[in-house]
Amino acid sequence: MTLHHVAFGDGVPVLALHGWTPDHRLMTGCLEPIFSQLTGYRRLYPDLPAMGQSPAGDIDSSDGIMAAIREFIGEQIGDEPFLLMGESYGGYLSRGLVAERPEQILGLGMICPTGTLQREDRQLPEHVVLRTEPGVLESLTEGEDFTDLAVAQTAAALAAYRADVAPGLAVADLVAMDRIEEKWALTTAPESGPVYTRPTLILCGRQDAVTGYADLYDLLPHYPRATYAILDIAGHNLQIEQPELLGALVREWLQRVS
Fold first, then answer.
1. For strand 12-17 and strand 152-153, is the pairing parallel, antiparallel, or unpaired?
2. From CA 207, how far away is CA 190, in angstroms rounded?
3. 51, 173 in Cβ contact below 8 A?
4. H helices, E strands: number in the chain
5. Which residues of 194-216 are buried (b: 16+ CB within 10 A; e: fewer)?
6. SS3 for 73?
7. In degrees, to the nearest 5, what angle opens at C-alpha 63 toward C-alphas 61 and 68?
8. Which end of the chain is more exposed for a tag (fewer CB within 10 A), N or C?
9. Rounded to the nearest 5°, which phi and psi values hold at 16?
10. CB atoms within 10 A of CB 157
11. Alpha-carbon Rg of the chain, whole angstroms?
12. Is the CB of residue 170 less than 8 Å from the CB of residue 77?
């Protein structure tokens, strides 16, 4: 399977994997403002199978999605060392890739990563709203689900949601995703390989009611070079609610890797 993707820049490959249901625009929206100010990085943003413009085909499991990612890496990166970033479910897949090829991955960055896979087993805070701006709720159109996850209900967050998140949600193959979710766990479990000793960044939202933050704490012994940051006024869309902190921490992670 050839995954639809977009790419920018030249240099060390950076593979960025989006979460469950959105598409590559979630990652380009939050990362390109950072990387466009830097040199020496070739950013690769694929759509995962059943999401964006990548068809599901006959894939029926996370193992199938991982096989498609391996093929993509073989086509676009080969044996070259690369940086890996994952958001939410993309973070879960990223942890699985690190278990498979720790020597090739120069550094691991994760935004609101899935720690405990099954939703009913996660330690989650309640959804709250901590920042609002006049007129934002009144500007929503019928059916927009921005408020479902928003901790910061601001004009800037809404604009980023409309540009980066909502378009992917609208085109996802939900039937195929339901099929894949029946076999959501990877056969090669994350953290099943050796301790990952390269620079790692784990960013969690203190008010993330989807993947939470507490479950990631138990993973820290496996990532001894990890910065583990829990950001206030940040839910599962941390990247659009705290973009300045995201940028600062990603740049610091890149410095540690280099």
1. unpaired
2. 25
3. yes
4. 9, 9
5. eebebbbbbbbbbbbbbbbbebb
6. helix
7. 105
8. C
9. -120, 120
10. 23
11. 17
12. no
Q: Which two tokens stand for residue 217?
A: 């704490």
d(CA 126, CA 174) in angstroms, rounded, equals: 26
Counted residue by residue, the chain has a size of 258
Structural tokens at position 174:
């939900």
Q: What is the value of pTM for the model shown?
A: 0.97
Name the band, by pLDDT with cuts 50, 70 and 90, for residue 1: confident
Q: Which residues lie closer than 8 Å to 203 by C-beta, 6 or more apart?
A: 109, 110, 111, 112, 229, 231, 238, 246, 249
Q: Give residue-wise pLDDT tens across range 131-168.
A: 999 999 999 999 899 999 999 999 999 999 999 999 99
DSSP SS3 for 120: helix
CA dist 64 and 186 (Å) reads 9
* Percent of the chain that is helix, strand, coil (3-state, to 5): 40, 15, 45
**Residue indicated by tokens 């609002």:** 132
Dihedral sign (CA 256, 219, 234, 143)? positive
- Cβ neighbours for 46, distance < 8 A, ≥ 6 positions apart: 3, 4, 5, 15, 17, 24, 54, 69, 72
Q: Quote the tokens at residue 103.
A: 């020597």
- Work out the average pLDDT over 176-199: 96
Q: What is the arrangement of strands in the sheet containing 200-205, beginning at the earlier edge strand?
A: 5-8, 41-46, 12-17, 82-87, 105-111, 200-205, 226-231
